[in-house]
Amino acid sequence: MHQIKIFTFSPFSENTYVISDEKDETVIIDPGCLSQTEKEELHAYISEEGLKPVALLQTHTHLDHVFGSAYVKRKYGVKMYMHKADLPVLADVELRCKTWGIPGYEPVEADLFLKEGDTFTFGNTTFDIVFVPGHAPGHIAFINHKEKYIIGGDCLFKGSVGRTDFPMCSSAELIKSIQTKFFTLPDDYVVYAGHMEPTTIGEEKKSNPFFN
């Protein structure tokens, strides 16, 4: 059984995920911890639970999803995985933080890349990687079919979808990604998004105003 811990960090209310299984091996997904207090909160949980971080995974690299990525890499000696098409987004984060007056960001570099059709395994857990561009050019999602959940980043939210008014976004691509990669899954799959509370595929197919 998986343990999925959600932290909501930074003024952007971004969801950071710490996922572990019975082997206590852990992945950290989209660390948005910006302040020192938030970084300490993340570390306290990992330490108190006796978890062993083995990787840093990024659904995408908009600034609110990478605020804490350099910290996580350094603190736990793990590698950062992302989709190669999101490199221009990552390269823009430092300038965007300066432009918007957001202090405390430490630049980070990717180590390894994931693409559509790949799998990522840790402990007894396997994620299928799906490519879901639209909100970001290199956006990916992590699907665990055994436990029936998706770590979906900023694609599909409860009653909404990800923004597409940023550079390198596409509303048409986002809708296509959701319809072909998310809505083809069974209704009982849980969607853990980059913001707001979890939802299910069935609920969003039935009531999400972007599809009804």
What does this structure look like?
- With 212 residues, the protein is of the alpha/beta class.
- The chain has a single domain, classed as Ribonuclease Z/Hydroxyacylglutathione hydrolase-like (Metallo-beta-lactamase, Chain A), CATH 3.60.15.10.
- The chain has helices at residues 36-48, 63-66, 69-76, 87-91, 93-100, 171-182, 201-207, and strands spanning 3-9, 14-20, 25-29, 52-57, 80-82, 112-113, 119-122, 125-131, 140-144, 149-153, 156-157, 160-161, 190-193, 199-200.
- The model has no long low-confidence stretch (mean pLDDT 97).
What tags apply to this protein structure?
single chain, 6-stranded mixed sheet, alpha/beta, Metallo-beta-lactamase, Chain A, 212 residues
Summed up:
The chain is α/β, with parallel strands linked by helices. Helix content is about 25%, strand content about 30%.
